[in-house]
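User: I'm preparing a small set of examples for a lab meeting where we compare how different chains pack in three dimensions. I only have the primary sequence for this one, and I'd like the structure in token form so I can line it up with the others. Please keep the answer compact; I'll paste it straight into my notes.
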Amino acid sequence: MDKNKILNSSGPKRISKYSNDNNLDINLVALDTSAKTAEDAAKSIGVHVGAIVKSLVFNYKVDLTGDDHLVMALISGDKKCDTLALGKLIGKSGNLYRPDADFVKNRTGYSIGGVSPLGLPSDAKVYVDKSLNRFDEIWAAAGHPFCVYKCMYADLVLHSKGIESDLIAI
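Assistant: Understood. Below is the structure token output for the 170-residue chain.
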């Protein structure tokens, strides 16, 4: 795959703009192989799968006729999201749904497989798995299934505007 084409596609360009607008020092890395899954990303980068940030998107609804609310769980690649715990953290009576690709693209601006924790809408609720903190460096999606960036845990929490939790990953 053409790395320049990847870096100049809409998702990575959006991350670059976000980085510049917020004075962040983020280096986007275009990969030779897909990073659609945590396992694929870890293999391509050469890191432990737990150092990969899984960006899991949910649609939170108070009832089936109510408004959609974007919720994202940033989970270590070697863990699974505990959706019951995540639902309790949100603190409202309602349900979490796994959305379709259209919801993900329309609400985050990114396609499934490349959803970045950066540049999300201001009304997005983001929760961060504290177990990611066991790694000195972690890797997250950068708006394209073949593009990632490296950061430290504290930076991920800060720039995703995330709420830390040790309950959302099992």
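A couple of notes for your slides: The helical segments are 3-7, 10-21, 38-45, 83-90, 101-108, 153-160. The longest strand covers residues 53-61.

User: Perfect, thanks.
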